[in-house]
Design a protein that fits this description.
It catalyses: ATP-independent breakage of single-stranded DNA, followed by passage and rejoining. The chain is mainly α and 90 residues long. The chain folds into two domains: 1-39; 44-81, no CATH class. It contains four helices and no strands. The radius of gyration is 26 Å and the shape is elongated. The N and C termini lie far apart (77 Å).
């Protein structure tokens, strides 16, 4: 009987160790990803490479609020593109 209790305790401890190791690995991967993406400005392509009329037309076609794509300053910067038709093609 005592042997079964010890075996059960060992099993539970090994399970907790495995779970903790999995959490540590996930945190390490997340930290590496965060470090790798530090130098990447994710909004750069929206500002510098995509014609805002294309983005606005896409949002209108798919009923996505433009505020989900452009922040307040970009909305002001691209105000000229907001009246584009949903069927706009570049």
């Amino acid at each position: 009987m005592g042997c079964m209790i010890v075996t059960d305790i060992i099993y539970r401890l090994q399970k907790k160790i495995a779970q903790t190791n999995a959490k540590i690995e996930k945190i390490q991967r997340d930290m590496e990803t965060k470090e790798d993406l530090k130098t990447v400005a994710l909004s750069t392509s929206k500002v510098n490479y995509l014609d805002p009329r294309i983005t606005v037309a896409w949002c209108k076609r798919h009923e996505v609020p433009i505020e989900k794509i452009f922040n307040k300053s970009l909305l002001a910067k691209f105000a000229w593109a907001m009246d584009v038709d949903p069927d706009f093609r570049f």
